[in-house]
Design goal:
Layout: E1 8-14, E2 30-31, E3 34-35, H1 36-47, E4 52-56, H2 60-66, E5 73-76, H3 84-94, E6 102-107, H4 115-122, E7 131-136, E8 139-147, H5 151-157, H6 165-170, E9 176-179
Parallel strand pairs: 1-4, 1-6, 4-5, 7-9
Antiparallel strand pairs: 2-3, 6-8, 7-8
Helix pairs in contact: 1-4, 3-5
Length: 205
């Protein structure tokens, strides 16, 4: 299937304050010599997303100053402390009227998920009814692709740290799982012990 690449927008949720990391905003964690949010944006672009929206929250001003996010639409979520659900709502709301027919949602704190995984999920896009997610050994993970027909339902149920979990569970029969266990590692950077997974080497693969 062929389609206009602008139909699918990349959406990075990067508002977290890193509570379990001692209050270090995840977007600003160093990875390959640059803020982690830059890496997340680069993955979406390498996968084929030409429009990328980034939801900011904790230390949004510092992220704007330190991260090179040229060409991205930066969305500030004043309610970021409520959890991921508020950021997902803010991100999807920001896509209204842009012409996007789907959103490919990724999390800033999953650097083990690269462009190959993201491109596989993007390839599952067929239109506004599309609903797809990466799977790792059969277990649903990120990124997740939401066709525009699902945005209202996702937004309605996105509360606290659940994000779209309840919506995806309720519509499990419609979700296309794209197996990516051979291409990515879906770990999160949540605790000080996880910081070892970040690379100080700008040339790291």
């Amino acid at each position: 299937m062929t389609y206009d690449v602008d139909e699918v927008a990349g959406l990075v949720l990067a508002a977290g304050g890193g509570r379990r990391l001692g209050g270090r905003p995840k977007a600003l964690l160093a990875h390959r010599g640059r803020p982690l949010v830059e890496h997340a944006v680069g993955v979406l672009r390498a996968a084929g997303c030409t429009r990328v929206h980034v939801v900011l929250g904790a230390a949004a001003g510092a992220v704007r100053e330190r991260a090179r996010l040229d060409g991205c639409v930066l969305v500030e979520n004043p309610g970021w402390e409520e959890g991921m659900g508020s950021s997902l709502r803010a991100g999807l709301d920001s896509l209204a009227g842009t012409g996007a027919r789907a959103a490919l949602v990724s999390l800033v704190d999953q650097p083990g998920i690269g462009a190959e995984v993201t491109a596989r999920v993007l390839a599952a896009y067929e239109g506004e009814e599309s609903l797809a997610a990466a799977a790792y050994d059969g277990v649903r993970g990120h990124p997740v692709l939401f066709g525009a027909a699902h945005w209202a339902g996702v937004t309605e149920g996105a509360r606290g740290d659940q994000g779209a979990r309840a919506y995806l569970k309720a519509h499990s029969a419609e979700v296309v799982l794209v197996e990516c266990g051979d291409a990515g590692l879906p770990y999160d950077i949540d605790t000080p012990g996880d910081l070892a997974r970040l690379s100080p080497d700008p040339e790291a693969p």
